[in-house]
Amino acid sequence: MLALAAGCTGHTGTSTHGRATASTVPLASLSPSPALTARATEDLRDPPQIVSKDGLLRTRIVVERKKVRLAGNDVWALTYNGMYAPPTLRLRPGDRMEVAFENKLDQQTNLHVHGMHVSPVGRSDNVFLKIGPGKKFTYEYTFPKSLEPGTYWYHPHPHTLSAAQTAGGMAGLVVVDGLDDHLPAPLRGITERVVALKDFQLVGDRIKTAHLKMGAPTTRTVNGQLNPRIRIRPGETQLWRLANVGANIFYKVALPGTKFHVVAQDGYPVNKVYAVDSLVIPAGARYDVLVQGPAAGTSELLTLPYDSGKAGNRFPQATLATVRSEGEPMRPAALPTDFAPEDDLGRETVADRKTITFTENKAGTLFYINHKQFDHNRVDFRAKLGTVEEWTVKNDSDEVHSFHVHTNDFQVMSIDGKPQTNYGLQDTVDVPPRGNMVVRIRFLDYAGRTVLHCHILNHEDAGMMSVLQIEK
């Protein structure tokens, strides 16, 4: 049974500029329908998996606009292999991956493996590549044996089109196996749940991709399903891979009465497991968590109300899934405290310090880093391979911005002057309005041209991205 729910309010955060008159408004700029809701009538389904074999993951990804069944409706979406919830790519550290990529859209696109420590040049994770309409390209990735286990994702990264294509449905997960190596023996091989959070705005029978407004009504799905049922036994421990694979919006995820025990953040295993009641997950971020089944009955996996600042948006509470705890109770397992080895960049010598400042115009339509809009022909920052740098990221605006760097993860040292506990490295972290964050980043293994940007893709597409040259 489908119902309609209210959307969010606040700052538009548009991905395109200008305003059409009512008589000339194209379909793409119309306001979306109210968000869809539904009762839990079907179990959560994991996306299909493509798994590496003998050190190689070989697959084909076809990009096309296609009608899919979504939330009880047949809607036009932008798909990978004809699916709104495309295959999860599953591999191990040290593997290679070959992707035969075919673009059947009427616009350029490309492929980015978000958060993965891999070469940013050539046929690898090169976001400067442009795969034109009707073109084919073979991506080739060689991952290091030091690649951290956890959850990553893949999505398009063509400048000015990233938000539209990702919002249209082009996003899937990558899982790097190996978290089991850090778990105590009784917890190895436990049930895993992919919880891929993806939202869409619906106009007529199509997902809206142009003139996106972050504050517009949006329907939130898990693995492409509307309020699916997640089954767990009372006391059972499961591993949930929470990933925000949408273009723009925030989630504040909670299962009231049950804690999330974080074992990895942004594909990086923590050195100490920590427990929280809720997790704010900006677009692009991931958390791997252990969840223990509550007492028998049903409860709701929620995204709680979240305010991204007076120039930002106020996102309402919504139900993501219904958790059904049933069956013979299990004795809750002892959860680990220490986990992966600690990597503390605070102990490293700093080779250079940089300041990165996020700003925007008053209308919230143009976005800048160090008062410059993105230009792929200009190098904005240079770093030396094999060194550690300390960056101060300033947010001189009245809304949250999400700081993201390609190729190498970073350690958050402080936020607004408050030292942060080092649980491990990350790749997508929020900078508060009118605040600042100090990070340290190690440039390891790979030289070449890459980027840093705000991972609110509306903001990235409207200029909030810079070129980083890593030199040998």
Automatic annotation (TrEMBL):
- For whether the record's keyword set contains Oxidoreductase, the answer is yes
| Keyword terms | Metal-binding, Oxidoreductase
Q: Residues annotated as region Disordered?
A: 1-32
Q: Pfam families, from UniProt?
A: Cu-oxidase, Cu-oxidase_2, Cu-oxidase_3
* Keyword Oxidoreductase (UniProt): yes
**Compositional bias ranges of the Low complexity kind:** 1-24
Residues of the Plastocyanin-like domain: 63-177, 215-292, 354-470
This chain belongs to which protein, by name?
Multicopper oxidase family protein
The lineage is:
Bacteria, Bacillati, Actinomycetota, Actinomycetes, Kitasatosporales
